Amino acid sequence: MKIEAHRLSGLGNIILLVDLIRQPGEINSPNIKKIIHESKIHFDQLITIEPPKEPLVDLSVQIFNNDGSKAKNCINGARCLTKYVSDSGLIPQKKFSVNTDGGIWQLSDNQDGSFSVEMPPPNFTQGQESLPTINSNKKYVLEVEDISLEVALINIGNPHAVHYLDDIVDFPLTSIGIKLQDSSWFPDGINFGVAKVNSTNNIDLRVYERGAGETLACGSGACAAVVAGCHEGLLDDDVEVNFKKGKLNISYKKHSGTLIARGGADYLDHLSLEI
Asked: Tell me, what's the pLDDT at 110?
């Protein structure tokens, strides 16, 4: 069976969108593994667009990593989705809501050409049952490959561990990321980010995503890093996050929990997939 798909880029994070409203079909983990191994099509995440599954939302989505595992959030994917929905006329209004496994996205196609994603407030308690006792800095100290990681744990619909340090360029992100996936601390895996503060409103960030490895950009990772930095007193409310392929603007209001990511998205190509 052939199915049509659209490939977009959110700061180099490659998103494959499959519109299951305008065409019949089903996407699942075996389908995705077939797409990867037989079609040789590169993507970081695949998002299916589906009819709303609850009242007061306009659409529903499912999010898959390129290894076939499910994800609950993908902020770069959300911006790509916003561009596709707006450009294709799937929904006429410029603001709409989407149900995900990690909560509801409020999406906006902005007049300046950017796209915004407002998401539920971050959660600071999920997934901490297997971790060491929190230290005086309200962080968890993890020893991996003779490196002492002082991490903040934040759930942005999916779980993130954030480690701030002075040099992220030479940090062995992939090897540490792999070890964390296999550790007893995170039985369901973890998205691991390393961040460097340039100023109170600017940081550099690298992220190892569970199920995908290091990606060129990670929107939920940017949100997690800014939330961690704000609570640590390192950052202001509005922060520019630098990735290898561009920048993402994150606004976080600590007292209300309001969290908004804003940035661009680019259309790459239209594909016909055999599933």
From this structure: 97
